[in-house]
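Progress report, Aim 2. The chain analyzed during this reporting quarter is listed below.
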Amino acid sequence: MTQDLHQRMSEHYGAEARRMLDALDRRTTDDPRAALPVLEDDGTACCDDGAATGGCCESPASSFGPELYDAMERAELPDAAALASLGCGDPVAVAELRPGETVLDLGSGGGIDVLLSARRVGPTGHAIGLDMTDDMLALARRNAAEAGVANVEFVKGAIEAMPLPDAAVDVVISNCVINLAADKSAVFREIARVLRPGGRMGVSDVVAEDALSETERAERGSWAACYAGALSFTEYRAGLAAAGMVDVEIVPTHAVADRMHAAIVRARRPGV
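Predicted structure tokens for the chain:
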């Protein structure tokens, strides 16, 4: 299932990235003031049967995307980085980043959170974006170059098997990506592995209320819509604890569907 899901996600988000890259190319060659698209899920990716019958197809637009970042943050970035956001929160705002830290963004997409993180950790710090889609990586690198941000790196890979050494980063962030993973236990183990002792995670994700069954979650949208794969609050805490993370905190921020919430998730790897 993991391989099939990766293929679906890669095809969908790769197509969205190509749409933005094509628009940027047209802006460069034809009209420097041409509008850029806001990347989004269409009906086919949003609902398994392609019909607008529920789930994210009926979600408020403000549940996901660039509007969840404040105006000052968006002003720091190229338009294409902000408009390419498909997340459910603003993890950089809650990660408490410090100068000199190394930050890893899981599922970095167009690079908005990597670029914001790079500004916050400063020239002595480093921000790494991990994404499995070639076109998203190309878009992110283009955005980083336009922003003039040098302390960034974009790496291809899956969040279930991160191509980073042990204890490589101080902070892990992510924006509505972990819920897309087929093997969340593997993701939690990898987070604990790449964090340095005492390192922390601060992610935005979609979490289901404990009373919802897996079947009820699946009825609210497809994997691409961020709903069907969402863990419950209890499952999320247990999964992080099983991976060795401590001080787990999950705070819902806004509803994205019936009894499903965008949430801030924080935890820490034990250590000095």
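Residues 41-66 have pLDDT under 50 and may be disordered. Strands lie at 102-106, 126-131, 152-156, 169-175, 195-208, 231-232, 246-257, 260-268. These observations will guide the mutagenesis work planned for the next reporting period.
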